[in-house]
């Protein structure tokens, strides 16, 4: 079936009550994605970022910056940093500001920005920076909420701070989301990607784009201390190798067009991982979607566009400058149904979608050819 025909006939399963963990029959490569623009949602004008995670209470949680959150505007209820709860299925979801913003359940009490969140044992963990462009490159630190976002201790894990201003260091970290309450994770590790910061003085896509992978145990919140991190160092007879010495790390993904503001999620229906990156220049709708059978790869490009919305028949007539996007961990259906959430324009923007697969592709084959000069890494 063609992508256009599938888009027209897309029947969403996201309204069904899904189990917290879906067991895939086999790992099936994702080769394309189709968007159903009749499902486009727009809310919270003026607010940005919107990383998402899914907790044991059945709700999703998200964060925004520089706005009033749901029901607010760029001025009404404006806070530097806020958190919200998303209840229900995509077709009729409701959103509630829980920390900051309009009609909030709890006032915010510090500033900053968050671009990645996970939920483990009912606790929320988020990568936080002060919010300034320079500081967002220069440091990120894990913060925690034990009450679903109503309060946060910004100083609980000083050992988690990634800090520095030298070129070539690791920055802009982000988690893999593993289903509801992290229940799809199989090996007891939290996985964290970081981007090589080429120019810490320039708040822009980092070129060439280099992504590293680290891991640390879930148990006892070991991942909140950098001393417990192991860095991916390559493959030995197809198996990943790790080192606590960051100087030994090797990229899991490289893109000469650059990377910035990424996200990653496990897709249990196909036993695959999906990563979203920005490329070439920020705030210009330059989006790339990658997939892999493991957190360390091999990562393969299945869609890459410049000026994304201009390439999508039926897309809304809005500012075509998508910058950061991630997939809802709850609204993943058993047949590849998904929901993509992004900002730029500064607002909650979302659309239902479907991952398309080719069971015959195999992990030794690439989907449509990547741009000239693109290096796909992680293969033996």
Could you describe the 3D structure shown?
- The longest helix has 6 residues, at 3-8.
- Helices cover 3% and strands 41% of the residues.
- Strand 16 (263-267) and strand 17 form a beta hairpin.
- Strands 10, 11, 12, 13, 14, 15, 16, 17, 18 and 19 form a 10-stranded mixed sheet that branches.
- The protein has helices at 3-8, 133-138, and strands spanning 30-43, 48-54, 60-67, 79-87, 94-99, 113-120, 123-129, 139-145, 162-163, 169-177, 189-197, 209-217, 230-236, 239-243, 253-255, 263-267, 272-278, 287-292, 300-305, 324-327, 337-343, 348-357.
- The protein is built from 2 helices and 22 strands.
- It has 380 residues and is mostly beta strands.
Describe the protein's topology:
Layout: H1 3-8, E1 30-43, E2 48-54, E3 60-67, E4 79-87, E5 94-99, E6 113-120, E7 123-129, H2 133-138, E8 139-145, E9 162-163, E10 169-177, E11 189-197, E12 209-217, E13 230-236, E14 239-243, E15 253-255, E16 263-267, E17 272-278, E18 287-292, E19 300-305, E20 324-327, E21 337-343, E22 348-357
């Amino acid at each position: 079936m063609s992508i256009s025909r599938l888009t027209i006939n897309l029947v969403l399963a996201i309204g069904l009550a899904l189990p917290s963990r879906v067991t895939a029959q086999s790992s099936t490569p994702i080769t394309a994605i189709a968007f159903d623009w009749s499902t486009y949602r727009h809310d919270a004008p003026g607010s940005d970022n919107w990383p998402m995670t899914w907790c044991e209470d059945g709700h999703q949680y998200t964060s925004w910056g520089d706005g009033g959150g749901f029901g607010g505007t760029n001025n009404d209820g404006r806070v530097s940093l806020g958190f919200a709860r998303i209840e229900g299925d995509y077709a009729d979801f409701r959103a509630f500001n829980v920390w900051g913003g309009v009609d909030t359940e709890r006032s915010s009490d510090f500033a900053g920005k968050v671009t990645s969140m996970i939920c483990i044992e009912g606790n929320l963990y988020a990568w936080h920076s002060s919010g300034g462009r320079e500081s967002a490159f220069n440091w990120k630190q894990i913060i925690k909420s034990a009450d679903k976002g109503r309060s946060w201790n910004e100083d609980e894990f000083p050992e988690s701070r990634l800090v520095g201003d030298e070129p070539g260091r690791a920055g802009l970290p982000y988690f893999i989301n593993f289903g509801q309450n992290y229940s799809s994770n199989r090996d007891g590790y939290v996985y964290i990607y970081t981007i090589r910061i080429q120019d810490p003085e320039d708040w822009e896509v980092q070129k060439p784009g280099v992504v590293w992978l680290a891991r640390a145990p879930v148990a006892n919140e070991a991942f909140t201390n950098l001393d417990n991190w192991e860095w991916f160092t390559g493959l030995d007879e197809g198996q990943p190798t790790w080192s606590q010495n960051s100087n030994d790390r090797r990229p899991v993904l490289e893109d000469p067009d650059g990377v910035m503001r990424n996200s990653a999620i496990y897709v249990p229906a196909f036993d695959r991982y999906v990563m979203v990156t920005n490329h070439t220049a920020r705030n210009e709708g330059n989006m790339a979607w990658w997939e892999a059978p493991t957190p360390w790869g091999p990562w393969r490009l299945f869609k890459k566009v410049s000026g994304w919305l201009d390439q999508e028949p039926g897309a809304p007539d809005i500012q075509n400058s998508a910058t950061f996007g991630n997939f809802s961990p709850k609204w993943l259906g058993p047949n590849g149904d998904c929901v993509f959430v992004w900002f730029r324009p500064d607002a909650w923007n979302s659309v239902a979608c479907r991952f398309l697969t080719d069971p015959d592709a195999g992990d030794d084959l690439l989907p449509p050819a990547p741009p000239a000069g693109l290096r796909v890494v992680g293969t033996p």
